[in-house]
Specification:
Blueprint (H helix, E strand, L loop, with lengths): L9 H7 L3 E6 L4 E5 L10 H4 L9 E2 L2 H14 L3 E9 L2 E11 L9 E8 L2 H6 L13 H12 L4 H16 L3 E6 L6 E9 L10 E3 L4 H8 L4 E4 L8 E11 L2 E11 L7 H67 L6 H33 L7 E4 H18 L3 E5 L8 E4 L1 H17 L5 E9 L3 E3 L2 E3 L1 E9 L21 H7 L5 H11 L4 E4 L7 E9 L12 H17 L1
Parallel strand pairs: 14-16
Antiparallel strand pairs: 1-2, 1-6, 3-4, 4-5, 5-6, 7-8, 7-12, 8-9, 10-11, 11-12, 13-15, 16-19, 17-18, 19-21, 20-21
Catalytic activity: ATP + protein L-histidine = ADP + protein N-phospho-L-histidine
Protein name: Circadian input-output histidine kinase CikA
InterPro entries: GAF (IPR003018), GAF-like_dom_sf (IPR029016), HATPase_C_sf (IPR036890), HATPase_dom (IPR003594), His_kinase_dom (IPR005467), HisK_dim/P_dom (IPR003661), HisK_dim/P_sf (IPR036097), Sig_transdc_His_kin-like_C (IPR004358)
Length: 572
């Protein structure tokens, strides 16, 4: 008989003692189907008859199931095993016995399947994880998903494959992969499986403290199961949250959500997600480590490239003063000086070249110390007046030699402005910034100013009531907008032509940034573009808020008072 094979009547199949019975051909197409309890699960048997193996009532792994049918038909030997079926979002762990239907003088091409739906008690009493893979309804699915995840070290791919695999297997409304870090205040959804009937929430992030079950999930290692009477922000009624771990440290959360109706999560489903979470936790850790190694490799390669560029660009800078020292000393040794005055000039030139070389070497050594963490700064109160006076004494003559104006402005206060930092290093930073401003300015001038900002900050294990913001503004050559981001990079000079024209190693700003950060401040650079001047600002904590002068002045008086304040250090 080539058509559908009718099953025995009610008495017939009951005599067989089968809870579920159906006949399939070698492709898995249902020829007959009978299940007296099908109505309990809204299953219509008539709709299953004639359907293919993966259309209506189907095993989770249809290709594996079909291969088993073909093997049974070829060997003509019945087999008993467990298999997980699904029907419209419902899952049925079944114990099945499949027997070939033997036909006289023909190869068998149909099988008789008798099955039994495993109860929760049977599932809990059966240690499915310890059974051979062909007996575990979830084990082959787990193995297949885990193998796919282990094939990649791309974190985004692992996240997405995890949610897609679980979402498709368990037919949930949503499956979310959430990254976890102890420092994060928000939980961020990294990947999502979303059923077509549900709304996507992929771009959402949320406060884990706002929802009790999230707090519970992050406080325990066991899965968290929630059935909600009222819909939450995600419209979920049933929720299952399982944490992923690596070496006992949580590194993610897998969240399953069922919307529109409550869903009892079976013991087998929970165990399946838990076992997969173990695999995912390890995969996340390995992928994260790989990313960190890859970034470290790129950083090392970039550092090596920058250092090579630095050595190439500064070789000339180091050689020039050294050649000057050797040249002028050779002139004296060879008796080329006509008189004692010219000999003194040669010695002064050699001395200046030696000081220049020393400054270059100091820059390099300072950066090396900072990078190695060996520069220790002793921090104490520093009087802004004293600092500005020293800057004026060092740099004002340089500005005058180039016919540039040079002004120092500070707030009008009754009490001293006390910075909290290291005097020598603050002076080094200011001399670097002012020196650069003078070097790259041909006309106009430089203004060094300070202002008090009442802003509490916490650094060096103590709280400070305010900060001082110190600015160095010039009318020099400026820097293009696209080049400004590179100014503070180590071993980087913005323009090789500028290097040749103005000299220097290009380390001044990098060193200044490190020193300012070590003293609890920050440094920024501003320029509207080439030829439009530059302003560099940096902040330093204040030991106390100074008492400001509040005497009102007219605009003319205020300008006059500013002029006096500007020139106070020049007159000294």
């Amino acid at each position: 008989m080539k058509g559908n094979i009718p099953l025995a009547g009610p008495t017939g199949w009951q005599d067989l003692g089968a809870e579920l019975i159906f006949i399939q051909d070698k492709s898995g197409r249902y020829l007959s189907f009978a299940w007296p309890d099908a109505y309990k699960y809204d299953i219509v048997c008539e709709k299953i008859v004639g359907s293919s193996i993966d259309a209506v009532f189907s095993p989770v792994l249809p290709e594996v199931y079909q291969k088993r049918i073909q093997k049974i038909l070829e060997r003509r030997i019945p087999e008993q095993f467990y298999c997980l079926f699904r029907y419209q979002g419902q899952f049925f762990p079944l114990e099945l016995v499949i027997s070939p239907i033997l036909v006289k003088e023909e190869k068998p091409h149909r099988v008789l399947v008798m099955g039994h739906l495993l109860s929760e008690v049977e599932m809990s009493h059966t240690n499915l994880s310890s059974l051979p893979s062909h007996l575990d309804p979830y084990q082959q699915l787990l193995t297949k998903i885990a193998r796919k995840i282990r094939r990649t070290l791309n974190l985004e791919t692992i996240w997405q494959q995890t949610v897609d695999s679980i979402g498709n297997a368990l037919q949930v409304s949503r499956c979310l992969m959430i990254a976890y870090s102890t420092k994060a205040e928000q939980l961020e959804i990294k990947a999502e499986y979303c059923h077509p009937c549900s709304n996507s929430i992929l771009d959402c992030s949320f406060d884990w403290q706002a929802e009790p079950y999230w707090r519970q999930a992050l406080m325990q290692s066991e899965p968290v199961i929630v059935d909600q009477l009222a819909l939450d922000a995600f419209q979920a009624k049933s929720v299952l949250v399982v944490s992923t771990f690596y070496q006992n440290e949580r590194n993610g959360l897998i969240c399953l959500q069922q919307c529109k109706h409550l869903r009892p999560w079976s013991a087998a489903e929970i165990e399946f997600v838990q076992e997969l979470a173990d695999q995912v936790g390890t995969a996340i850790a390995h992928a994260t480590l790989y990313q960190e190694l890859e970034q470290a490799t790129h950083a090392a390669e970039e550092a090596s490239r920058l250092k090579s560029e630095f050595l190439a660009s500064t070789t000339h800078e180091l050689r020039t003063p050294l050649n000057g020292i050797i040249g002028f000393l050779r002139l004296i040794l060879d008796g080329m000086a006509d008189d004692p005055e010219e000999q003194r000039e040669f010695l002064e030139e050699a001395h200046n070249s030696a000081l220049h070389l020393l400054n270059l070497i100091n820059d390099i050594l300072d950066l090396a110390k900072i990078e190695a963490g060996k520069m220790v700064l002793n921090l104490s109160p520093v009087d802004l007046n004293e600092l500005f006076e020293a800057v004026n004494n060092f740099t004002c003559p340089q500005a005058q030699q180039k016919n540039l104006s040079f002004k120092l402005k500070k707030p009008h206060t009754h009490t001293p402005i006390l910075l909290y930092g290291n005097y020598q290093r603050l002076l080094q930073v200011m001399l670097n910034l002012v020196g650069n401003a003078i070097k790259f300015t041909h006309e106009g001038g430089i203004v060094v100013s300070a202002e008090v900002v009442k802003k509490k900050i916490f650094c060096h294990d103590q709280e400070f009531p305010a900060i001082a913001k110190i600015s160095v503004a010039d009318t020099g050559i400026g820097v293009s907008l696209e080049q400004q981001a590179k100014l503070f990079e180590k071993f980087v000079q913005i323009d090789g032509s500028h290097t040749k024209a103005y000299g220097g190693t290009g380390l001044g700003l990098a060193i200044s940034q490190k020193l300012v950060q070590a003293m609890g401040g920050q440094i920024d650079f501003y320029s509207m573009g080439e030829g439009l001047g530059s302003t560099v600002t940096f902040t330093v904590p204040l030991c106390q808020v100074p008492v400001m002068k509040t005497v009102p002045l007219s605009s003319d008086e205020e300008d006059e008072e500013d002029d006096v304040s500007d020139l106070i250090f020049e007159s000294e």
